[in-house]
Design goal:
Elements lengths: L7 E2 L1 H9 L5 E4 L3 H6 L10 E3 L2 H4 L9 H13 L9 E5 L6 H10 L3 E5 L2 H6 L3 E7 L4 E7 L4 E8 L2 E5 L6 H9 L3 E6 L11 H8 L2 E4 L18 E2 L5 E4 L2 E7 L8 E5 L3 E5 L16 H16 L6 E4 L16 E2 H7 L1 H6 L3 H11 L6 H9 L7 H7 L10 H10 L3 H7 L7 H7 L1
Parallel strand pairs: 1-5, 2-3, 2-4, 4-5, 9-10, 10-11, 11-12, 16-17
Antiparallel strand pairs: 6-7, 7-8, 8-9, 13-14, 14-15, 15-16, 17-18
The structure holds fe (ii) ion.
Amino acid sequence: MSAPNIPVWSPAELHRHLSESSRFAILDVRNQSEFNVWKIEGKVPIPTINLTYFDLLDLEDEDEELAAAFARSIPIRLKDELPLPGQPVLAVCAKGETSPHVAEGLRRLGYEAYNLAGGMAAWGDHYEVRVIEETPRLSILQISRPARGCLSYLLASGGEAMVVDPARHIETYTSLAAERKLRITAVLDTHLQADHLSGGVALAQAVGADYWLHPYDSIYPDDLLPATFPFRYLEDGTTFKLGKVRVRALHLPGHTLGMIHPLVDNRFLLSGDTLFIDSIGRPDLGGKAKAWIPLLFDSLQQLLALPDSTMVLPAHFSHMHEADAQGCYRATVSALRTRNEGLRMLSQGLTAFSAYIEASLPEHPQSYDDIRRVNTGLLQVDEAKASELELGRNRCALSQREAEKQAGKEASVSSRLQTLGYSVQTPWQRFISG
Ligand SMILES: [Fe+2]
């Protein structure tokens, strides 16, 4: 049965609504296991109901129109869970192919319902670009992948560009370079990425530039097999001349052994997975947490010694509320001193810092092992497997566990709806209970 032609939100429109803390609810009809791994999150909690498509669907007979069946079954199955008709509800599924029927059913019940175009797959592959610096001397673009919390950067000066931590959709960067008439002269990864598939090698090949990586991070940590692709050694002090500015590599291990932090024009620090806005990087992904925690401790101390005005630009974020009013994920060293919990723990000394880290480590996602094998060229995957490996938000920061605990304590959907001003006493609830 063909999908009804109903209004949609593109991933970009969804991002705008999330950024503006718009009031809407989500009806997510994916399987519960998929939903538990990954859901849409905004600056404020979004009232979200998860009921699978087939649990929601109750056909009277084979010929019944899907939207009509949903219009009949939604009031029965969801009872008090949805807001009052007339209010916005976004229907979400894996690829945006089944949720239009749900959205149409909601519309027939009087809801201002939309379908998420392309579903969670399209949301996961959506990118946003924000300008960090735009002067004749230097441009810095922050390219975020909001659903995953990944950040990459395009640095440009004098017609030359460098791309740092590119995601696998390399057309994002080649398009930006073409729009701005830039020649990409260097591509680098700050470290061997575990949470997402790097586009570094492919992008470098596509534009005829060198790919740079610290040699320690070219080795798969479990079996010590080396990377299968050519790359140039990125080491402490490696300095790039990019147009009118210099980019100097600071090697500060801890998250990985080869963790590099590009310092741009002595003013901007690309902090990789060592230092985020509200959290710090986890030192356990190489399976050597005890040995690497002291490295991370020393590295963070060195980052704190940078001038107060140094602007920190991380490689990840955990929550949208970490963005500033312009939607950029950035903060000065001075601001992070007080804001960042991991940095505050440094003053307690190494023993207390180690205990804090060990108590805050999130689980180690199994997919991270395969992702690192792909990122060292030891494993090839097709697009379907690549998407599967990248499902969900990154888990590179320490604070995730705390965030997960908080999520577990969240009130029921109904009480969250009330918190956001929705009425939970819907007409059908009154009808059913009355
Ligand atoms: Fe990482």
